[in-house]
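=== Structural record ===
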Amino acid sequence: MPDMALVNGQLTTLAEATVSVCDLGFLRGIGAFETLRSYAGHPHALSEHLRRLGAAAEALGIPPVLTEVEFRPQLAAAVQATGYSDVRVNLIVTPGLHTDGVFGADQPTVVVLLRELHEPPAAWYTDGVGAVTFRGARVCPQFKTTAYITGREGLLAAERAGAHEAIYCDEQGLIAEGVTSNVLILKDGAVLSPRISNLPGITRAGLQPLARAAGLEWQQADLTRDTCFEADEMWISSAVRELVPIVTLDGHSIGSGHPGPWASRLRAAYRAAAEADAARDAESS
């Protein structure tokens, strides 16, 4: 079964998909993206991802390109064409082909990548993963842009340490987010989310009401490495991974050094809610 791509609305296999070398995404590194996944073949939180993509595109000077009414059936047809049970979807928009000046372009480029979804290894959830911190900040922290250069140093450090994720810290030592995830800790019955500017995570937002319904408080706070070392549990969240326990940070054990009970409980609640939401959205569209 082939991985597929939509390039400006044209469906093709991923192997055959192309974008011009004159595209400003290539020439200037300007682009916004979203990553989402399907449950039982239905995209999850598509509305939320399209809204966040639109906000990022606007911040980069890219005009609106995708409406849910037009895009949802197009995406459904593309998912069906893959033949996969579930897919990982990447939405990318750039200003388009360079026309004049430094950033001139007439028509945005819209690319949708559809690849088979492989569930993360079970050991990530049963054993937990490690993370490292590094000094830096993501370009446009409120949005997902294709400019990953600031995260490269952190991910290389994580690879050298045998860790799964790298976490941004500012000059004051405040934790913002992971290079590819949001960060949360659990301390004394409260889930703490970084107060410092970071990506408004869609998965994180979905976890919040579930945590509160389970009896946990949810607060924004200034988080540091020391705060994390004192946490009962530490997690990262993202669309594909959902909620993954962090058991070591910079070589220091978090809590018992093993996944805590709340990680699996909240992930199970999130998975059930996500499956129901995806099915409901597909039925109502």
